[in-house]
Amino acid sequence: MERVHQHIPAISWSAKARRAVEAPISFLVTAAIANPDLINLAAGLVDDTTLPADAVDRIVHGIMADPARATAALQYGTTLGLANLRRQLLGHIEALEGKPASTMGLSADHIAVTTGSQQSLYLLGEALLDPGDIVIAANPSYFVFTGALAGLGARILTVTMDDDGMDVEAVDRLLSRLAGTGELARVKLIYCTSYFQNPTGLTLSAARRPRLLEIVRKHSAHHRILILEDAAYRELRYDGPALPSIKSFDPDNAFTLLAQTFSKPFAPGLKLGYTAAPPEVVDAIVHQKGSHDFGSANLCQFIALTALQDGAYHAQVKRLQSHYRLKRDTLLGALDKHVPTDPAIRWTHPHGGLYVWMELPDAIDTARGSPFFDDAIAEGVLYVPGAYCHPPDENGHVPASHLRLSFGQAPLARLEPGVHRLAAVIRRHLGTIAP
Ligand code: PMP
Is the CB of 199 under 6 A from ligand 1? Predict the structure, then answer.
């Protein structure tokens, strides 16, 4: 066809597309690919060397050798997810909580299987939030979800964190304040990553778990405010007590959703998550999911089911725990050894998960494109700028002197050299702060 020389007008995007911004992940991945010598303390991925290739190989062979299972696994499944898998997952949740599902008002029909737990978080947002609705989250929070919330037009109001995780009394005060200004009706959701949070590695204390539920119940006189408990890192626990979920304190299965995943404790490539939720919330998620993909990959669900049944899953969790415990200790040891001592420099000591959160003096800006960030890239070390993890406060302010460090993907032997490089950058920039 002959080329017509006409003005090519701009595309008229939806309001939602206009709200979406480039995911920080994309540029971090580009930076990592551009320099293979870069030590990547940014990637929140699990270690390539720990992926369960042998177990999955054996499981897939077993499925394909059995005509009935092979047919079922290669066919479409249901939107809610494979019934046997959901039954197995109910048992798995019971084992983690140490109590029967009936005490939490849960059955297998209250579990939705999704394409990663990320899909569940997003579908809940779609089902629940109109532009201007309010979500309360910890500051900092998991930036992929807060980005999705911003894309949905939600207002994210934050509360601070301390060593006991999200400050739930601050949630209480915030809800009271919103009741006073007539905005409580807009509050739909409290988002809490209750175990080894991304990005801080901090865990919500035992006492704060039932307390958060109590607070939400108290403020739910007119409509039900939901708690989204994101437990993606729950099973990557290296020491400290195995805490029951917030959900386990909700006997009627009414106020809380518990979102878990196979990505961290088994293999991200399955991209399989599951969420235990109140019945009407499961329905709402499934209705949205019907338009997204009308069911997660059935083959992956069969693999996950078999891994849970034949012990491969639990063996993998054990392997990961000892591997990442060592990596965590190596990273923390290297930080102690190399990072200059300064009262304004601190970092977390997580009992699980993949992240350490570091605070530098306020005067050091770690944001993308800052001299500190560019210096780190030049030195050959990558981190996630803390600014990505802070939803702006009510004045639009975002703290910029934090870093998220991960001991997930970088090989064990590269962790100390990575910290050594980072420490050199910190030392140089400390030297530039005016006294
Ligand atoms: N929640 C948190 C806190 C995460 O860090 C992640 C992944 N990085 C997810 C949810 C989603 O993971 P997935 O979709 O692979 O289950």
Answer: no
Size of the chain in residues: 435
- Please determine, for residue 291, whether its predicted confidence score (pLDDT) is greater than 80: yes
Testing ligand 1's pocket by substitution, the residue of 25, 230, 296 carrying the most ligand atoms inside 8 A of its CB is 230
What's the pTM?
A: 0.96
Per cent of the chain over pLDDT 70 is: 98
Pocket test for ligand 1, best of 45, 261, 275 (most atoms within 8 A of CB): 261
149 vs 273: CA distance, rounded Å: 19
Is residue 125's pLDDT more than 70?
yes
* Closest atom, ligand 1, to C-alpha of 121: 10
| Structure tokens given for 346 | 């601190």
pLDDT at 25: 67
SS3 356: strand
Q: 3: buried, middle or exposed (CB in 10 Å: 19+, 13-18, 0-12)? A: exposed
Give the CA radius of gyration of the chain. Answer: 22
User: How far is 303 from 378, CA to CA, in rounded Å?
Assistant: 42
242 close to 207: Cβ distance less than 8 angstroms: no
**Distance from Cα 66 to the centre of ligand 1, integer Å:** 33
